[in-house]
Design brief:
alpha+beta; 17 helices; 25 strands; about 35% helix; globular
Amino acid sequence: MLLSAGEAKNLGPSSGPNRLRDLCTFCTISLDQEEVYRTKVYEKSVSPFYGEDFYFEIPRPFQCLSFYVYAKSMFQIRDLPIGKVAIRKEDLYKYCGKENWFQLQPVDPHSEVQGKVHLEMKLNELITENGSICQQLVVQIIACQGLPLISGQNCDPYATVTLVGPARWVYKHKVKLKVSQFIMFWQVTRSSSYKGRSHFHVEEEDIEKLEINLLKRGNYDLGSLRLKVTYTEDNVLPSPCYMALRNLMLKSPDVKPISASAAHVLGDICRESVGYDALLPVVRLLLHHNRLLPFLTSVAALELENTQEANTIFRGNSLATRCIDDMMKIVGKSYLTVTLKPVLNEIFESNKTCEIDPVKLKEGDNVEVNKENLQGYVHKVFTSITQSSSSCPPLMCDVFRSLRQLASKRFPADPHVQYSAVSSFIFLRFFAVAVLSPHTFQLRTHHPDPEISRTLTLISKTIQSLGSWGSLSKNKLVRQLLVRRCVHVIFNREVHKRAQGRKRLGKKNFKKRWLRVTNQELSYHKQKEKPLYVQAGNCVETNSWIEVLSQVSRCNPGRLSTFHPSAYVGGSWLCCTETNESTPGCKPCTATLLANIQLDIDCDRETERIFSFFSSSRSRLQKMEDACAGMSVYLGQQEECSAFTIQDPKETFRTIKELGEVLDDLQAHHDSKGALTDEPGTM
């Protein structure tokens, strides 16, 4: 689900003059009554502009999507609820993809009731002990369904049943639902002699006017909230149904030119409707199948062809930059945690004032002390970044190396462009963004308070400045050291090299050597194309080596699937006794370790999302097909072609026709399955 919390206006009511004007407000997003996100706190405004987007998976069935607006005060222990907007799941389609203003409703125990109740009511005529006749009202709650979850757990429910008389008098009864059902008795009598808790007097002609309410609501003008909700449910078919579309997407990195590939076509036709959001499932699918690196290299090369000045390299929002951004967010989570989380925790806990703007200084602030605090924080953050090369994910290093090479080739006269190409991502789009919004990268649970948020903003801006090439003109070595280390040295340790060709094993057959691994090469060995056998110092080091080597080689197209665990001695392999030295290995190589990447990727679901984006943009796909046909006939760029990137109209036309056939076939599978099922979806 994609949510956009826009703004609120006229928040209230207030019990005193300008009461809410002195409070800070924030908005939370809840599935049923379980909070999943919250915005940052906005200071002293009854019409705050939130302007935040949230994209998240829905892991469980739900009934209601709710938005709560709270007032936060320094003098109150608990946040004060102002109002809420609740949208039932079955009503989400009414608001999907459109901005709407919603009136805030009051937040009270009654308004938080959700679910269905199976209710039975009877009105029986009884003769009392003194011979008078009375009516007995029996209310029985047989069962409840769909009760909300509180923090993922079952709630502790109770029911309040209200009996409203003809003169608007009210009788309430509250009972906890500890069992699956309960029965409630009320006696409606003509006599006033009964004063019991469940007895009351009512005229016979008024009995039919009695009302029973299980919920009571009030109406107040609490303000309104502007929201944009995009909700989709993924109706995932059996895996074989997606084979054709999946294979077509996985073939994208090999298509020449890259603009004629299915992945690039998807980004082109969806750009106007959903921006580049359609590229996320493409990135995840290619990542799972180790096809992302060649695709990113190709789209980056295409963008560089259209870049005229080196100082604007990768600065805009394009297909290439969006794909690389998504890649960094997926594979770089643990990298950010290791690099930034310790220093961010220190910033949140120490809460030192860092304001240096004279206009924003508070009474008693010392600008020199604040400047020292800011410099200290920036130094710690920047040092953590520059010393983080060993934690940088191999795929990010591979992509950065490709960007350096492409930038140097595009602007050979500029010796610094290879570093600015990388810094535009690693500093401006990765570390600076994570410092500014740590909650987005799960580095903190919630938004910081306004003062810490201001500190993070100052640190982030400084990191962006330090990450720009011009600001490092006096300290270029820092940039070069970071980038070069980030894409080179990964492991460097002493090992024992085993000699080859000797019949006996002994101490003389093992020599100490320093072995170095980078993401480009493994050294040491003296002869090219000859196997190197080394022995780590212990089992822990062995596992460390295997993990590092597996990560580094996972994108290597020449990676072997088998190996010989022993040496070739005396005309045969000691492990399997095969005499042919070129015989394939007898043991499988260690599986590539992608635990933190692949386990969260469901390729069928990602392909279904790709299908959904294509299906919602079939009209744009048809226009692109017509544009290709027009370019082929008239041999040139036509006006209707300006909305698309078409380098080779014939190849692009061929891809679109193939896409059309695949999409039609997949749609037929969906049609045969019928309506969507009530399963967790995507928000």
